[in-house]
């Protein structure tokens, strides 16, 4: 088996590749030197980024201290004025975990009836409840339940950081974008989204290593925890169509369907009503926070009905997917998998009835892989921090009664518009990179699609429009010369002294 490791001298360093990263590095002594971190040193990019991610996660926990000390329990508005709200302690009792009820099988009191989360997330919540001791006052048990979940979610955060760091072999330091993302730290323990994000990040890593079945299994598990990961199969289908990689896509699809069924089928058969609650709740819930539908409804004398919004949202999502399909098949160079993955998930969130503050967690790992530029990433993160503060201040305003403490409706609408426009901005620069691949920083050194697995360096078999007129290989816009590709496998001949992967070598991490 030939080596698949990339030498440190071949790694792209942000301080040499990105002017914002170079300027920011002055705070810690300036750009890294050529002789820094010699080979074999303990401080590898993966370890550094994992530790930074742990540190930022810990800061996010510290930010929740006012709520942990009582704001979750002794006042509706104080958890909002301190911007430390979390669903986790409230749902410990509200979804029956404090009483030992079994998710999906036991009915809840009130209107909810059953747990409204996908099965694997329900398992995650149930395991955390088993680790929470009983017998104490309910408030103390809720605190411990939040701490237990925070510990489990911290493991997910490290998994995400490691997987993102290792996906692009020549750009491991891009993982610092994720590790230092303020919105990641602030929203990590609002809900249980990090479980699905971790499984999705691991799936992306497996695909980048050519392990289609492992990718499918992990993506199926991620979809069993949250619905959005299944969307990645759409872009993958288009990319495999353009490259003629049908067998690999079939393996991915089969793995995803199989693992999803393994998790869901027992509950589906034994507790069909409880299993279906997540899907019926998603259809029946009205327009909610963070979405442009809420902005629209707040400016209408007679807001649209839930059924109408469902229909319109589906139409907009279908149109967005059609646009992504056209972009994929007609772009002058086959788009990178991470670029399309970000676009389709962003389209889903932007057209959805709700854009909760923790949904940014879905996008952050994909944004790092799709557009690893510090300026654009920080603009987007700043907008998400504005929205994070805006929604809690708005809820403080609506729950503070005569005190009128917090952000009025107009201010919240402005914060919502800022975070929607920032997400659209990031989509726009990614689309520009697809249409003008010479602007893509990932491809600038001569790479094709580091997260593409079998797609990386594969020749096009099906392309249309302008793409059909281009040479059927990726071009190296950095040097203005065509990169040579293998005639059989279509893989790039290495340009930086690193042996290319053979079939066996792609299995190694």
Automatic annotation (TrEMBL):
Keywords assigned by UniProt?
Cell membrane, Membrane, Transferase, Transmembrane, Transmembrane helix
Q: Name one Pfam family in it.
A: GT87
The annotated topology with respect to the bilayer is:
Multi-pass membrane protein
Select a single GO molecular function from the record's annotations and give it: hexosyltransferase activity
The family annotation for this protein states: Belongs to the glycosyltransferase 87 family.
From the broadest rank down, the organism's phylogenetic lineage runs: Bacteria, Bacillati, Actinomycetota, Actinomycetes, Kitasatosporales
Principal subcellular localization:
membrane
* Residue ranges with Acidic residues bias: 499-509
Q: Does the keyword Glycoprotein apply?
A: no
Q: Output this protein's name.
A: DUF2029 domain-containing protein
**Extent of Polar residues compositional bias:** 1-12
């Amino acid at each position: 088996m030939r080596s698949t490791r990339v030498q440190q001298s071949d790694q792209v360093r942000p301080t040499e590749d990105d002017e914002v990263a170079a300027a920011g590095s002055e705070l810690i002594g300036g750009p890294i030197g050529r002789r820094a971190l010699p080979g074999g040193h303990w401080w590898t990019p993966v370890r550094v980024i994992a530790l930074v991610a742990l540190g930022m996660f810990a800061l996010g926990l510290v930010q929740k201290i006012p709520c942990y000390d009582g704001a979750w329990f002794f006042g509706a508005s104080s958890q909002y004025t301190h911007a430390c709200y979390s669903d986790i302690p409230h749902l410990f009792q509200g979804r029956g975990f404090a009483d030992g009820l079994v998710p999906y099988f036991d009915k809840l009191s009130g209107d909810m009836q059953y747990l409204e989360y996908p099965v694997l997330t329900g398992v995650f919540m149930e395991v955390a409840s088993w680790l929470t001791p009983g017998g104490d006052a309910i408030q103390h048990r809720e605190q411990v339940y939040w701490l237990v979940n925070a510990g489990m979610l911290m493991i997910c955060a490290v998994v995400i950081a490691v997987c993102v760091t290792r996906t692009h072999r020549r750009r491991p330091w891009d993982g610092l974008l994720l590790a230092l993302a303020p919105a990641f730290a602030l929203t990590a323990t609002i809900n249980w989204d990090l479980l699905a994000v971790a499984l999705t990040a691991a799936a992306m890593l497996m695909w980048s290593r050519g392990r289609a079945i492992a990718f499918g299994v992990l993506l199926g598990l991620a979809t069993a925890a949250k619905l959005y990961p299944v969307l990645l199969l759409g872009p993958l289908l288009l990319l495999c169509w353009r490259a003629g990689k049908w067998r690999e896509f079939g393996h991915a699809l089969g793995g995803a369907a199989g693992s999803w069924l393994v998790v869901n089928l027992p509950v589906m058969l034994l507790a069909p009503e409880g299993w279906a609650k997540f899907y019926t709740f998603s259809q029946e819930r009205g327009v909610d926070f963070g979405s442009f539908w809420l902005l629209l409804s707040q400016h209408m004398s007679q807001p649209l009905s839930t059924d109408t919004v469902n229909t319109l949202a589906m139409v907009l999502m279908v149109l967005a997917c059609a646009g992504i399909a056209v972009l994929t098949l007609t772009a002058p160079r086959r788009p990178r998998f991470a670029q399309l993955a970000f676009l389709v998930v962003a389209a889903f969130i932007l057209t959805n009835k709700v854009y909760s503050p923790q949904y940014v967690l879905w996008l952050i790992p994909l944004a790092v892989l799709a557009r690893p530029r510090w300026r654009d990433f920080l603009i987007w993160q700043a907008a998400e921090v504005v929205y994070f503060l805006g929604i809690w201040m708005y809820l403080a305003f609506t729950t503070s009664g005569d005190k009128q403490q917090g952000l009025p409706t107009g201010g919240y609408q402005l914060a919502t518009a800022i975070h929607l426009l920032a997400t659209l901005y990031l989509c726009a620069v990614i689309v520009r990179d697809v249409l003008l691949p010479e602007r893509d920083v990932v491809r600038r050194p001569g790479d094709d699609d580091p997260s593409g697995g079998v797609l990386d360096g594969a020749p096009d078999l099906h392309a249309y429009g302008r793409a059909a007129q281009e040479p059927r290989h990726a071009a190296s816009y950095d040097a203005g010369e065509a990169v040579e590709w293998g005639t059989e496998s279509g893989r790039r001949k290495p340009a930086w002294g690193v042996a290319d992967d053979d079939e066996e070598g792609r299995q190694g991490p």
